[in-house]
Design a protein that fits this description.
Length: 258
Amino acid sequence: MALPVAALSAGVHRLRTERRDAWWMLPLTVVVVLGSFAAYATWAALQNAHYYVEPYLSPLYSPCLAANCQHVTLPLVGAWWTLSPAMLVLGVPLGFRVTCYYYRKSYYRSFFLTPPACAVADAPRRYTGESRLPFLLQNAHRYFLYLSTLVVLFLWWDAFRAFWFPGGFGIGAGTLVLVANATLLSLYTFSCHSCRYLVAGRLESFHDAPLRQRLWRLTNWLNPRHPRFAWVSLFGVALSDLYVRLLAMGVIRDVRFI
């Protein structure tokens, strides 16, 4: 984490502004939070262990598609896959967040300093926008939305399975953790700008589409809260994986309510 923080600090001194407030705190916070999550998620995905303890499956490994999974969700990949099964699915939520309109604003300002804040000059560099690779891939956001919707459905399946223990139906702390995680990711996914457009973007009238009108009203309510869901769901994923990981390692014990 020292490198991006040091780069941001060095960049602050090169930026032109008359602002006297601590405008740099927000971009610095984004660098620390996003950088920490990226580091943790990468580390957890490479572990290839401690991601399943019956009946809980870490969201970083869901859906588990390889035959070498501790718990196979959907056996699409055979035994030839010897790497971590998380590597098969993490590209979808990563692509969805990286191309997300809100996250683009956040990391453009925080990591690239273009611009870092209102009334602060951009860091000096040649600006090409999103017209060249790799930023040209930002246009694939809607397709990542489709794939992320499938991942969210699998996460709800994992949350449903979290009610079924070896002895039968039950509710544990892990059950509530996975349900909360699926809920937060659903709110983040379906508050997306592309989802709002998908629901009713090409309609000229709601007269013959009452269902789509209700969905449009729902997405209109969710959409202004998209940044909030983006951050809270990010913490939800990390904490859910950490909870399952500590259970699998025997560091903590699951609390059973029923």
